[in-house]
Write a structure and sequence with these properties.
single chain; alpha+beta; 3 domains; seven-stranded mixed beta sheet; six-stranded antiparallel beta sheet; 27% helix; globular; disordered N terminus; binds zinc ion
Length: 391
């Protein structure tokens, strides 16, 4: 009995917190702020989708369906006759609907739980979903409120265990990056990817500290030269960030200058060691000869990141190759490599930092927040040429 009351009380508190958290984002103050929507390509091609939640509008059916217990499923149905086109089947409780396989638009109000393709977990999503026909299935584009989207980005890219001011700085950087993607999407059907090609987004977060960081930074962005700054960020710079123009070429020349940062020392990848067996390089078609081969760096970034290499050994050299190959073969956190040794068929590399090194250093933002610095101070440290725009 006591346990049941405890569970009921606990559940009640959780529900109350959720309602409060979301009202922070949907309340009158939030509504008054500048809001925009963003289109996120959630994943690659899928052939099935399951939906649990409120009434769902399916434009192909031209009607609303109330999802049955266990959810509503939309599936690709292979043609029974050879050569006939595939169709789609909607299953809801005991009811079935069949349509030609087409692009679909799904709309609902409030939160829903959606399972995409073969994914094992449900995603809590708001907004509307465009399923665009691709090959024998669909690619899903979610259209969602910017601030709800950012809650999911903060969860994936930083995590609620980071200090509030670091999360707040991250929210402003991620919002600016997202808006710069919208400005560049042109005639594409989506603005950015939900994976590390853009910013990782899985589902809307309900963590109170993340919602608080978003509420405190609602609509705030970084600008440079009057435009929204493409505010790159990464995990750990390792001591110095990189020039954004030299690294990505898609920002103005002086917009993202390098800065010296020693605030990220607590990062597990401030310094690191990785091993790459000789055989892995040979398997990738690189010649490794002699008793004590070593990498010769042909090209470096101004910070010192390896860019182009060859291997010297036995009086000969391999053909030149991109340092990115090393990153892949050895799961290297970065290419800022500071020393190399070779022993018994294995190269041992020691390096600094994690990620591309441009813009905000997340572990550095954490370090600065723990010293009592505000989000504004953190941002002006990593983006010294940008302005903070408060709507
Ligand atoms: Zn750093």
């Amino acid at each position: 009995m006591g346990l049941k009351i405890g569970i009921a009380l606990g559940l009640g508190i959780v529900l109350l917190l959720l309602a409060q958290g979301l009202s922070l984002l949907f309340g009158p103050k939030a509504r008054a702020a500048e809001r925009s929507r963003i289109r996120v390509r959630l994943c690659r091609e899928i052939r099935a989708l399951r939906f649990e939640g409120p009434e769902l509008w399916i434009d192909g059916l031209r009607r609303y369906l109330q999802p049955a217990t266990g959810g509503l499923a939309i599936l690709v149905e292979e043609a029974k006759k050879e050569g006939a086109p595939p169709g789609l089947r909607i299953e809801n409780g005991g009811q079935e609907y069949r349509l030609p396989l087409a692009s679909l638009h799904l709309q609902w109000k409030g939160p829903a739980r959606i399972r995409l393709g073969k994914e094992k977990t449900w995603r809590r999503l708001f907004g509307s979903l465009q399923l665009l026909r691709r090959g024998g299935g669909w690619v899903p584009n979610l259209r969602i409120d910017m601030e709800l989207y950012l809650s999911g980005v903060l969860h994936e890219e930083m995590g609620a265990h980071f200090p509030l001011e670091a999360l707040r700085a991250q929210a402003i950087a991620a919002r600016s990056y997202a808006l710069s993607c919208i400005a560049r999407s042109g005639s594409r059907s989506f603005d950015l990817y939900g994976d590390d090609r853009s910013q990782v987004f899985h589902e809307v977060s309900e963590e109170p500290r993340i919602l608080e960081a978003i509420r405190l930074s609602l609509g705030q962005t970084l600008t440079y030269g009057g435009s929204t700054l493409r505010a790159y960020y990464h995990s750990t710079c390792g001591g110095r960030t990189r020039d954004g123009y030299l690294r990505f070429r898609d920002v103005p020349r002086d917009a993202l200058p390098p800065v010296v940062c020693d605030f990220c020392k607590a990062s597990p990848l401030y310094r690191w060691t990785r091993k790459i067996p000789k055989k892995a390089l040979q398997g990738a078609g690189i010649a490794v000869r002699g008793e004590t081969p070593g990498f010769e760096v042909l090209q470096r970034s101004p910070r010192g990141d390896w860019e182009r290499l060859r291997i010297k050994g036995g009086g000969r050299t391999s053909a030149p190759f991109s340092a990115r190959l090393l990153r892949k073969l050895g799961s290297l956190p970065s290419l800022w490599i500071q020393s190399q040794t070779y022993r018994k068929g294995v190269f041992v590399l020691r390096g600094r930092g994690f990620g591309h090194g441009v813009g905000l250093c997340q572990w550095g933002a954490r370090g600065q927040a723990l010293l009592g610095r505000s989000a504004k101070e953190i941002l002006s440290f990593y983006f010294p040429r940008a302005k903070l725009r408060i709507p």
